Amino acid sequence: MDNIFTAISTRIATAAGQPLTFVLALVTILAWGVSGPIFGYSDTWQLVINTATTIVTFLMVFLIQNSQNRDAAAMQAKLDELIRALGPARGEFIGIEHLTDRQIEQIRAALEQEAGHEPGKIGTVDDSVETLLKRR
Q1: Where are the domains of the chain?
Q2: What is the DSSP string of 23-89?
Q3: Residues 79-121: pLDDT tens digits?
Q4: 89: Cβ contacts below 8 Å, ≥ 6 apart
């Protein structure tokens, strides 16, 4: 079941992100709008588009979330492998995505402090960018 859902969700998520899909959705909305006078802007006319967009949105939320979950898990596995493969890297960071938000924030603060910056200070990023730009 998982393999079938993964295959279907991947195909639909890929198709949904294509320019042609956007054009088809736009044409559908335009056709619906143009058909308004033909149907006298009736309640049924409005209900058709409302129902269709609600159903599509509802289903797409699950498909997109599935796709993002798989992408994030794959990225995390790759990062974990990099940490594992690098000798000086700290293996304790493998799996920290399973910690609570508070625990992760504490780790970030400790790393910023270790880097010589105040935890939560915007300067941490600015200093890194400035250092990078000076290398050029």
Answers
A1: 2-97, 99-136
A2: HHHHHHHHHHHHTTTTTTT-HHHHHHHHHHHHHHHHHHHHHHHHHHHHHHHHHHHHHHHHHHHSTTS
A3: 989 988 988 888 888 888 888 999 989 988 888 787 776 555 5
A4: 82, 83
